[in-house]
Amino acid sequence: MLRVVRVLALLVAVLALAVPARADDPGAPFRAKLAMNAVIAKRAASALALIAKQSPPRGLSTEQRKTWTEHSRALAAAAGRFAALKVRMDAVLAKGVHAPPSELAQINLELGTVQQEVEQDSSRFESLGPAAHARHEAVVKAIR
Q1: In a domain, 19, yes or no
Q2: Is residue 17 part of a domain?
Q3: Which domain holds residue 85?
Q4: Domain-embedded: residue 87
Q5: pLDDT score for 120
Q6: CATH code at 96?
Q7: Structural domain count, the chain
Q8: Residues 104, 90: Cα–Cα separation, whole Å
Q9: Within a domain: 123
Q10: Residues 77-133: pLDDT tens digits?
Q11: How far, in Å, CA of 114 to CA of 24, rounded?
């Protein structure tokens, strides 16, 4: 069933890209960017959720383990923010040509804002040493 849904989604995406942009549609470039950003938001949400579930490495002190747990919670919350953003992006995309360009541009900007906030939040936890640095790099890679 999931495979059928994916094939249908791919077919719809291909057909949407095959339709030439109308000259009277000023939101077309914003809509195309929003479609790409929706994919990025979905990928970031799932990647961050997986990173948040990683168990702490061995050898951490009690304080470091506490910080690791706090970081895991922050990453899970960030995954939720990306997932919520994806839902809002899908709602705007569903409006099609009726979505105003300003709304398309605004939601596109939200992705950059959320990415920046998550990256800054993740960098707070680099006091855990090499384990946290590797985790932070994975977070940055996931949200880009």
Answers
A1: no
A2: no
A3: 27-143
A4: yes
A5: 85
A6: 1.20.1440
A7: 1
A8: 11
A9: yes
A10: 999 999 999 999 999 999 999 999 889 999 999 999 999 998 888 777 776 667 667
A11: 31
